[in-house]
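Consider the following assembly input.
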Amino acid sequence: MERRGVLIDPDTLRQMSDELGQQHAKLEQEMYTMAGYEFNIGSPAQLSEVLFTKLQLPTTGIKKGKTSFSTGQSELDKLRGEHPIIELIEQTRELAKLKNTYTDALPKLADEHNRIHTTFNQDVAATGRLSSTNPNLQNIPIRTELGRKIRRAFIADGDKVLVSADYSQFELRLAAILANDESLINDFNGDVDIHTKTASEVYGIPMDDVTKDQRRAAKVINFGVLYGMSPHGLAANTGMSFGQAKDFIDQYFSLRAPIRAFIDKTLAKARTDGYVETYYGRRRPTPDIVSSNFMVRAGAERAAANMPIQGTEADLMKRAMLKVEERLGDLGDQVLQIHDSILVECPEENAQKVADILETTMEEIAPELGIKLRVDVSTGKNWGEL
DNA sequence: AAAGAAAGCGCG
DNA sequence: AAAGCGCGCTTTCTTT
């Protein structure tokens, strides 16, 4: 994958850079006007000075930081509505991030064929995942519409196409399997919307009555509570009160007793054996699990609870990639791996075959688990439309 | 001038 | 006192 590289359209990215730069300059001027003077938006210290000293925005509960108040997104959320500059900061930050990290940088790294060659590090992540550097191609934007435009600049060569295959709800499904939570497993096998189902059970209401906010809270729970998210963290993420968040978490674990038991078993192993491991035996040492420092110890517990799940995911992906490479032959080339997904470039006439190989190979990579994994496959001319 | 820490934020 | 896990990159600011 490193040698093959992935094709980009550098002209599109350069054009985006221009537009982002112009828009950024415009927003910058508006912010200077609001503040009454020019300052460096990229400097958290200067921005904090503008918000809390010059503009006198309320600092109650905004706290953080060693020297100045934090200006991170989580704190800006609390200030929304207090002053129009808040939205400008958010917009400016998004533009600067996309320009500096992606649209400016990527074209410079392409070879003479406009292909980018990342390095996949195999001995970096403590869980067994790959990581990607110089450039990191595992964090190309997708969550905002503007960001997704960058992903659309990743394309297939000539009349080829891109085929992506990603595991559906990989971590949650593995958690259900490793914890042997039959109720959760049945939900997955029944193609139930797991976040809606969780909300329905936690709130004790029919699935059809679950509101968007309730589903969103359940989604945060499903991803976060597994690894030790606190009532404080859940409240901050969903807008619930601390008390509501605590009740929600209590209700969740009484509902998912097998998950609770699996986490407890994992922590017990960390304490007695000094390591935790994946389903296939990849280990992560856990020396800090016995630290006398509460923060260090609590952090080690969250990391230990997470590793068997994230690590097993990594193990499965690596096995799948090897088998995919074998079965693909000359039909197409794997070009990227993004933790739970594989991206393949292939001639259009092979697309259906490639898609089938990806789907069946990934879904059937671990029959010993006794549970069917689900894979979603998609084909297109660029990465953004997949 | 180079190296490192902090803050912030992109992804799974 | 502080409260999901795993990464890498850019900028600012400080230290060497």
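The domain at 6-117 of chain A is CATH 1.20.1060.10 (Taq DNA Polymerase; Chain T, domain 4). Ask yourself how this observation constrains the way the partners meet.
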